[in-house]
Records
---
Amino acid sequence: MDDLRVLDVRVDDIDKTGLERSILSGVRNGQSRLFAYVNVHAVNLARTDARFREIINRASVAYCDGEGVRVAARMLGRQLPPRTVLSYWVWDLCRIMEREGLSVYFLGAREPVVAKAAAVLRDRYPGLKIAGWHHGYFRKEGDESRNVVEEINRASPDVLFVGFGMPLQEYWIDENLGLLRAGVVLPSGSMIDYIAGEKRATPSWMANSGLEWLYRLLREPRRLWRRYLLGNPLFMLRVIARRIRFGRM
């Protein structure tokens, strides 16, 4: 698996099929592995947050989640496969886990939302082993966090989804990865909300045209205006500057 750097952030040259194979391999390996996703927001955060950048760069897998990252890679002389967005990919992934007899655990969102997400998946994939779930509104350190880790370990899932939002989810995973009995750990952002129907997926024509950011901005302008209206242009300016200065990544 080849990897490259977009503004010093690692992005692996791996497609959805490769990710699925790597997850199955990671589960069989028996050691907790982090599969991180990289989009424009992640690269912008990594620019000023060395800890976050280090977590992404030493993850077992760092896959492309954003069309902007693919555009930047092309500008800097490399080609990435189509992005893999967990909120869409989760359905295929759960189908594979059902087929392989693997168990999953969901950590994040509000209690009614994560419970609804688990129910939706149970109805859609009756053979999927849902080892458990827990809401994301707990202290990410101290006794509360340790209790959550112990609860997950009692369930011992093959795949653990953690959705607190970036970078909090990556921080928590990094601090607890060595303690968790889970084969593969996937930061999942708002995935649980999408499964539960609390958030609507981007229409396919917008997602396929690289306009998912616009749809999300229109849906949540107060929360996302800074990320997209300031973050996206800043990202592209940095890519252009890197191209002019070095002609490479």
---
Amino acid sequence: MFQLTPQFWSIVVTTIFTVVISISLYYFVINKQDPNKEPKGLMVWLEYYVLGFNRLMDSMTGGKLRPAYAYLFTLMNFIIINELIVWFGWESPATSFLFTFTLGMITFIGIYIIGIGTMGLFHFMRHKYINPLELFSQFSPLISISVRLFGATFAGAIIGDIMFIVIDGLLGPGHDGFLSVYPAVSGLWDWIYRTIDTMLSLIQAFIFTVLTAVYWTQEHGGSWSPSERRQNRKEIKQQKKALIAKQKALEAKKK
């Protein structure tokens, strides 16, 4: 019988949190901001956060992926909220490989959408599969980006459990668990572990987003317009011909 996992309910909760937070920020903060006045309070932090993200993406992608910034920004924040809900007793969805693989598959499909859309099918396939030996290496982005997030989150959970067992056994055999004897230490350790694990997970959420932007930028051919792509290819050919002509002229002078 089909049974829903804790990670599934965590995704549902995360989605609800994301929608509620987004709507609340829009109606109670952004919508009330007068565009003719300087922002104040929370609005200032929101602008710094969004503009800082956009500047980072511009520096990494050269502005090629600006139409995709909204997705990349949503992706990063969605993963962050998924990691933060562990503080409320929910299971992190990233501990399920299906969750991270799905996000990785979206990134992987995006590589082909951007590549074909900006290069054209023929030029993209020639660029991507010019060497048959590299056929299997084309799947490396999907594997690396999926396993990275899953491994970091899952490893953090395992390390936390191992440390809990080690600390709880400090009094040795025949005694009650150390953390049960000293409940204050148990609470302190739980807070420290969750903080460290959350920080590492937030870093992985940022890395996942950055890698997505890098993979997409690498396959960006320059333009979504077929006419502009043809014009760019003509200009490149003309530049190559001019360069070859100059080289031949220099060789002729030397002779």
---
Amino acid sequence: MIKTSHHRPLRRLLAPILLLSAIIVLALLSWIGNAWGWHINNLVSADGIRWIVSNITDNIEDGPIGLILLLMMAYSALSESGLLRMLRGRWTLKQRRALTLTTVVAILLLTLLLCLTFLGSGILLSPFGGLASSPLLDGILALFLVAVIILSDTFGYASGRFEGLADMIYADVYLIHHRSYYFMGYVLAAELCGCLRFAGLLDNDSFWSIPAQIALYLIPLI
């Protein structure tokens, strides 16, 4: 039997239990509401059960799993490389040199991005030659996070905090490794969002839809 230790506090079970309970309550409410003539789709009907079974992985993929992983990696790299600590402390000569190199790399990355966007055929622009609906804008957040990871790894290696590729990789996944329990909650949050959409209670066009989904995906971090 796996024993609960200080590495696996019972409070980490709270979010999965809450989310699973919410899914069960939602299923019951959809059944009752559908029977009473509410404008809600029944999750425990034949159609609802078929939908649940066939959309388990789709719900997970529809959630912001890619963005969450990149955010975790970017924060891990910033923290473990020591780049965040430089904002509140004295800098050594080696750190100053590492920061200079990191700045040069940042300028090179920005220059490359600008060249791909505005020079030649502008491959990162839209088919109409503008920024609206362009690959650049569609991927700008992911590009920013990837750049943060690259710059943090550059600083970490140049400053001597990372001794090689293995240290960089470990640093980039540090938060993912130490918050691995989050992903159980993520799966349940994704299923809950999917069930809410099927029931008709969550509409992506509503102004409160995105904040509600963000809140659900943050619950596993409590």
